[in-house]
Give the backbone structure.
Amino acid sequence: MEMPPDYARMRNDLIEAFPKENIQNMDILSVEKFLTSRGMEIKPYLVLEEDDISKVREIIGSADFFHGMLEGGEFAGSYIPELDMAFVFRRGKVKEAISSSGDIFSEGLLVHELGHASSEYREYVTTEGKSAAVPRIGFCLTEHQFGDSVPMRGLLLEEGWADMLYGDYIADTPKEKKHLLTEALGDDMERLITFPLPGIGKVEMPLKYVYLDEDNSPSVRITSLAAYALELLCQKNPNIKPLLSEGRHSVDALRKLAQEINKIEPGLYEYLQVGNYTLDSFGTKLAHILSLV
Ligand SMILES: [Zn+2]
């Protein structure tokens, strides 16, 4: 099934209401070049401020694409599979973190969301009484759309994939663009910084995943824990990295990926597949992988 016509209309209306040419204080060319150089297609994206939200609501009406993320000021961005579009929200704490860390932080967030958009599983399905939904985003099965009691699977791999791209973007970007970060924390983007996670213990994170929060303190996003976990798996078993790229479009590669992860430890793939998008879930899994390497 193709994208339903009413979704396609909303998508066009959003692109027309928020043309990317109007995006200020962000080097979108640099983001696009980075993704293109990795063979990734640039899907439509919007960078929104708080004042833009009402217009988005007007266009999408009662469609529940955002699952509360339009209103919740703490969300930095989202990829909406139904519209096949990426969104970055520059407001609240995210806006403050951009002031502390520089525009490169918002560029990294856009790289992350467009990273999710590289999923080539573009199948729409409908179930009785529900609107059309996309059941797989890359490594993640989004069955929750068919009932709140059904948990999502594959969140760690999907978030890890998107945020490894974030980390690579920050690492690859010229020094002068990340001067706020380097002045505070140094030049070596692979340097490990220790973060205490409540209830989990200490984890180490490479500097490329660290941003400066509203108080100018080093901080990491939940998805970065997943990225570093995935990075460590790639180091431990070099067969994994190419399968991550192939897995964006090949079910056969997804099967091989599970086998290669389980070569590190039997049952590790199944262990990583379950769990929510939380500090506790991703942090516990990262701590486990750190204990293996
Ligand atoms: Zn994400």
About this structure: The pocket of zinc ion is lined by residues 112, 116, 159, 162, 223 (CB under 6 Å). The chain has a mean pLDDT of 93. Residues 155-292 form one domain. Residues 155-172 form the longest helix (18 residues).
